[in-house]
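Many introductory courses stop at the sequence. We go one step further.
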Amino acid sequence: MLTIEQIDSIDKEFEDRLGQVQDAQALETLRVEFLGKKGKLTLLLRELGTIPTEDRLVFGKRINDLKNHAESQITEYSSKLTSGPSKKSEAPANLPL
């Protein structure tokens, strides 16, 4: 049976893995692993049917919050990765060339 501890464990795992992402390919792998058709969060949502009715609201809200957080973090990281590094390689404007 699904527990809050399992949800929290997946949340921590996602945060840990997100901190290790260095490129777009790794980010896509992370997205598929957690949000894909057979992803960890998708499977959690499917398990809601096994939860007693009185607990479903709490579990459902927690899983949906985690899913929304994961989606927004992935979108944010994706935009950071695609914007590329800042123009550090250019000479500062105040130095003569």
